[in-house]
Amino acid sequence: MNAPLAERLRPKKLSDYISQSHLIGPQGALTQALNQGLIPSMIFWGPPGIGKTTLATIIAQESGRPFYTLSAISSGVKDVREVIEKAKQGGGLFTTKNPILFIDEIHRFSKSQQDSLLGAVEQGVVTLIGATTRSGLLTSPLRARFGIKLLLEYYNTDILRSIVERSATILKIETSKEYK
Predict the structure, then answer these.
(1) Contact 23, 125 (CB under 8 A)
(2) How far apart (Å, rounded) are the C-alpha atoms in residues 162 and 71?
(3) pLDDT tens-digit profile of 1-17?
(4) Crossing angle of helices 52-63/29-36, nearest 10°?
(5) Are the CB atoms for 77 and 117 separated by under 8 Å?
(6) Residues above pLDDT 70, as percent of the chain
(7) In what order do the strands lie in the sheet with 42-45?
(8) pTM above 0.85, yes or no
(9) Tens of pLDDT, residues 104-114
(10) How far is CA 155 from CA 18, 21, 32, 50, in A?
(11) Dihedral sign computed on CA atoms, order 137, 14, 37, 103
(12) CA 170 to CA 65: how far, in whole Å?
């Protein structure tokens, strides 16, 4: 497989996701939501490279929901409307199978782009998961539609060590235990 290194190392299941135990641990908000099968719209807020996109992808996979992804950097209102139209055709409104729309860098959307999401979220056409490093740039109406606002925390030394060890295992690289 010639996939980029980051893709080969990206966790595919919640059990492989290292860190954010306050969210995915036994009592974590995401664990509870997945167990109940009711995923609310949510915003992931945290520093770049912390796993927001990976977590959204895992939530969609583990909940068995259709998954649409947009980047606010390269998408506009037309793209949002296209995804909403596809989601409407799929049925499953306000069910455990309504589609998840993930928008990376959602804070980069203009007010009109953010407003284009409001009706679809209110009506249950999509479950919106937004990822941002700057949640204060979201409009008040959009922020109000997120059922859960989740802070993803920086990695500590132990988490970084676990990520390196997992990566070495996947890549079949022998590691020295001297750094412990």
Answers:
(1) no
(2) 29
(3) 588 998 899 999 988 99
(4) 20
(5) no
(6) 93
(7) 67-71, 100-104, 127-132, 42-45, 148-151
(8) yes
(9) 999 999 999 99
(10) 9, 11, 23, 8
(11) positive
(12) 27
Strands of 60-154, DSSP E: 67-71, 100-104, 127-132, 148-151
**CA separation for the pair 96, 36 (Å, rounded):** 9
Question: Is 150 in contact with 42 (CB distance < 8 Å)?
Answer: yes
Residue range 53-63, pLDDT digits in tens: 999 999 999 88
Residue pair 83/126 in contact (Cβ under 8 Å)? The answer is yes
Please, which residues have CB within 8 angstroms of residue 24's CB and are 6 or more apart in sequence? 14, 17, 30, 31, 55
What would the two tokens of residue 108 be? 């980069």
